[in-house]
């Protein structure tokens, strides 16, 4: 993650399946997953691998 760039201006890929994730302009959180359940699945997997997510 590069915090010197406005991350929302960059195209984002779903961390779970690699699908392109559309970012809404303006304030708010960056979307990193194509769907809520992909975020959940990714965090579950990361936790299983020992990452404190
Ligand atoms: Zn996905």
Helicity range: 10-25%
Count the E strands.
Answer: 2
Mass-distribution shape: globular
The sequence of SSEs as H and E is EEH
Bound molecules: zinc ion
Category from helices, strands and their pairing: alpha+beta
Hey, roughly how much beta strand do the residues contain? 5-15%
**Largest sheet properties:** 2 strands, antiparallel
Separate helix tally: 1
N- and C-termini, Cα separation: 15 Å
What are the segments in which pLDDT stays under 50 over at least 5 consecutive residues?
Answer: none
Q: Mean pLDDT score, rounded? A: 86
> Into how many domains do the coordinates divide?
1
Strand order of the largest sheet: 1-2
CA gyration radius, whole angstroms: 12 Å
Indicate the topology.
Layout (H helix, E strand, L loop, with lengths): L11 E2 L6 E2 L14 H13 L5
Antiparallel strand pairs: 1-2
What would a concise description of this structure say?
By secondary structure, the chain is an alpha+beta fold. Helices cover 25% and strands 8% of the residues.
Structure description:
This protein is of the alpha+beta class and 53 residues long. It has one domain. Helix content is 25%, strand content 8%. It has one helix at 36-48; strands at 12-13, 20-21. The chain has a two-stranded antiparallel sheet with strand order 1-2. It starts with 11 loop residues before the first strand and ends in a 5-residue tail after the last helix. The mean pLDDT is 86. Zinc ion is lined by residues 14, 16-17, 19, 33-35, 38. Residues 14, 16-17, 19, 33-35, 38 line the site of zinc ion.
